[in-house]
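User: Could you check the structure of this?
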Amino acid sequence: MSTKIIVNNDISVLSSNNNELLKFLFDNLRFRDRSYFHNARFRQRLWDGYTNFFNQTNGKFLTGLLPEVYGACKHFNEKVEFVDNRTKCDFAISKITPDFMNQWLPEGMSPITLEDYQCELANQAIKNKRGIIFAPTSAGKSLIMLSILKSLPPETNTLILQNRKTLAAQNYDEYVKWGLPNVGRIWQGYNEPNTFTVATVQSMEKALDILPKTQVLLVDEIHDMMSAAPKKVYRLLKNCSVRIAVSATPFKYGEKDKIQKYYVKGFFGPLFKIQSTETGLITTKELQERGRLSKSKCTFYKIKEPQLDYEIYIDAVTKGLVENTAFHQKVVGLTMDMKGRTLILVERLAHGDALKQLIPHALWVQGKDDNETRQEVIKKLQKSKNCIAIATQGIFNTGINVFVHNLVNAAGGQADHLIIQRMGRGLRTAKDKDDLNYIDFVFDINPYLHKHSMKRIKILKEQGHEVQVLDF
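Assistant: Sure, the predicted structure tokens are below.
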């Protein structure tokens, strides 16, 4: 039997006479959506609920799934002929060392030594050219990304993509500070593409002409970058052979969302593993032990009113969190006794409005605020001696550098990636901070809210945090 894999930048093709192999790949690379049963097309029997990542008829698959496809070929003892059609894109530096970044050290900054895992992850990206960098909060993902970018020839057309303009502006400023040449930017108010272009995915519609020329793609916070808009961008990058994704939580819902997971792997490749840790990954607990993250004190307080035993989930959130005056008073009571920089996360605007009325001196930042307003709040959460900020949870869930003493999660939630990212906003170290005081709530008022509270406790314990549950 003849088996051949034609490897392209985006979609590769397996050609084989082994029908058993083709069926095996089809059966094992198809997954049902988490909410497929509620889909109108499924209910009308127009769709079976599955997303297929291998086409049994023509052998096509996303190139990032090459390890899975080749592994199946080996399982069936197939001798594979490879035809590599990927665009050639060589790095100028083949391997970085711990002092690598010091040759571009910004003025006034002391020399730095890259951590062992930072070098390993950057070198994995340089060697393999495709894959996922698992980098928890304060793992130094900015330095890892910069090390990769600095290892490229200065004329390499590169796109650095993210979901939020606040994160884009933060990355852009960092690259300019470190002397990355020819840095451009594309987001609201800017359309300045260059050799190294930092862009929000929402703004790419006005710059689609740069995609055919892009050789390298670097995506920040990949877990937020798997909706229709970023997928469209990934599919248009026909000449892009180097594809690296970065996140503290690359796969959603503890890897239970198989479709999201295999799209991430399909577009980018497997997780990079390192030798400097036992697990092959750098974890939050290890970063705390290294002193790169603050220790944490996690306290959950019980909310016992009003009783909403028979409310559906969406109504339970409205009545139990957003419009729950007793809950608001307890959040305020806890917050007013806190010292230092405090961030309160809320789920809905009405909830933030209610807390702002009760804490008039608090800063209140929401989705409609412009980048300058957000940056002002971020600066206060980095440098003020004392301040209270209220924010919708989406703004500070990922990628934003704040150094808070107290983090109050008044937004509930149960998704692993959101809880881990949310916690990460508070674990960053600061000169005036020894540990993080994390406050959350057990909602003994509704089965859905209670279940989600227990899930948050479980996630935090799995991440190595000590958790206590108290009555008010």
